Amino acid sequence: MTSSESTTALSDKLLQPEPLTAEAFAPYGDVIETADRDYFLINQDYTRRYHRLADVDTDKDGSAIISIFRAQVYPRPLQINMMEKHPLGSQAFIPLNQQAFLVVVAPPGDTVTPHDLKAFITNGLQGVNYHKGTWHYPVIALNNDDEFLVVDRSGTGNNCIEVFFNSDQSPVLQT
Ligand SMILES: NC(=O)N[C@@H](O)C(=O)O
Ligand code: NI
User: Fold this and answer.
1) Taking residues 158-169, what's their average pLDDT?
2) pLDDT tens digits, residue range 106-123?
3) What are the tens digits of pLDDT across the range 41-65?
4) Quick check: 144 and 101 in contact, CB under 8 A?
C-alpha cells in the first residue's frame, strides 16, 4: 500500500470530536451541567439546587452506587477498536478536576458498527450520563490521573456487553 493509499485509508476512518451539547447528546443520554440550566433556591437561599439533571436507571435487582475512577491517558493514536454497553443500567461520569475529556458513543441497539460512532469533547464543567444500553468507549481522559465521580448500577446479571471491531475498520480518534 502506498503512503497516499494508507493516508486515504486512514483519513476514511478519522473520528473528529465535536463540542458536547445536551441537544446533540440526547440520543445517547444526558449532559450534567449547570450552564443555562434551571435551578431553585434552598437552604435559606444560600444554595442553588440544579434539580434532577439526570436519572439513575438500575433496572430490576439493581442499586445505584457511587465510585471514583482515576484514569490515565491512552497512548496515541487511539483506535476505537471496541464499544461496550450496560444493558441493565445507566452510567454517569462527572469530572472532579474540571478538565475536558472525550466521549465516544453510539445509539442503544442490539449491536454497533464503526459507522454508528459519534465523538464529543466536554468543556471541563460537563459530565455525561449514558442511558441504559447506550454504546460507549470506556472513559477517555485527556490528563493523567484525572478523576471522575461515577454513578452506575450494582446488581445481578451481566451489565457489560462488548463488541470488538476489525483493526482495519477501527477509526482513529482525533485529539
Ligand atoms: N468498567 C467500568 O466500570 N467502566 C466502563 O464501564 C466505562 O464506561 O469506563
Ligand atoms: Ni461503561
Assistant:
1) 97
2) 999 999 999 999 999 999
3) 999 999 999 999 999 999 989 999 9
4) no
Shortest-distance atom of ligand 1 to CA 86? 6
Who's near 140: CB < 8 A, 6+ residues apart? Answer: 71, 74, 78, 101, 102, 103, 104, 173
- In short, whether 138's Cβ falls inside 6 Å of ligand 1 is yes
Grouping H, G, I as helix, E, B as strand and the rest as coil, residue 168 is: helix
Burial class (CB in 10 A: 0-12, 13-18, 19+), 122: buried
C-alpha cell at 77: 493514536
One-letter amino acid for residue 29 of the chain: G
Q: Are 104 and 15 in contact (CB under 8 A)?
A: yes
Instruction: Report the amino acid identity of residue 138.
Output: P
| Per-residue confidence band for 175, with pLDDT thresholds at 50, 70 and 90 | confident
Q: Whose CA is nearest to atom 7 of ligand 1?
A: 138
Give the closest residue to 161 by CA, choosing from 132, 141, 121, 122. 132
